[in-house]
Amino acid sequence: AQTVTQSQPEMSVQEAETVTLSCTYDTSESDYYLFWYKQPPSRQMILVIRQEAYKQQNATENRFSVNFQKAAKSFSLKISDSQLGDAAMYFCAYRSFGNQFYFGTGTSLTVIP
Amino acid sequence: DTAVSQTPKYLVTQMGNDKSIKCEQNLGHDTMYWYKQDSKKFLKIMFSYNNKELIINETVPNRFSPKSPDKAHLNLHINSLELGDSAVYFCASSQSDRPSYNEQFFGPGTRLTVL
Hints:
The structure holds two protein chains of two kinds. Chain A is an all-beta fold. Chain A has strands at 3-5, 10-14, 19-21, 24-26, 33-39, 46-52, 60-61, 64-69, 74-79, 88-95, 101-103, 107-112. In chain A, the strands form three sheets. In chain A, strands 2, 5, 6, 10, 11 and 12 form a six-stranded mixed beta sheet that branches. In chain A, strands 3-9-8-7 form a four-stranded antiparallel beta sheet, with no helix packed on it. A two-stranded antiparallel sheet of chain A has the order 1-4. In chain A, a hairpin with a 2-residue loop joins β7 (60-61) and β8. The termini of chain A are far apart. Helices cover 0% and strands 49% of the residues of chain B. In chain B, strands 2, 4, 5, 6, 9, 10 and 11 form a seven-stranded mixed beta sheet that branches. A four-stranded antiparallel beta sheet of chain B has the order 1-3-8-7, with no helix packed on it. In chain B, a hairpin with a 5-residue loop joins β4 and β5. Chain B is globular and about 45 Å long. Classes of the chains: A mainly beta, B mainly beta.
């Protein structure tokens, strides 16, 4: 089975600064999808960004971007110009070709005013 | 319109009781899931289900059972509730054959407290 590892249980960042959350995964598949989800205190799971493995270009959504390194099986999330509303748990997720999803253990992000 | 809805949002009950959590999605997706999120925020897949196949995480006790009356609903039944069942339960859905926009959509979660 695929595994997803988030090695940073907690991170903090000053407001307006940049932070990078790391994620690595283990797979033997060549086609798959990667996601970052945000879970604020409201507990709603919100999709932040997605990446298709066959696309070499890194995905970007406003202040959120990824650094996708397929050979290294690494998928980090960069948050630029951090805002107080970015404080949340962030989950990295892998979707296999067979439509199974695997989640990392999460990184709790604190934004310091 | 709510894409994935769950009821109830909060459920407090006594040990030994039987309870159900309902989930409905209006996205036309073909696959639905149940997750358990414990106090450490770990998300654990319990079941995934589409029209063809139910995949059960082998670590889930058989006191938990999914019931799907139709493609848009996947309810979770829990028998003989135990203290360790206290958690937040999330329902989610996705479309298996769509090459893009194939993420999971989550419901708001149900916080179950067993006393």
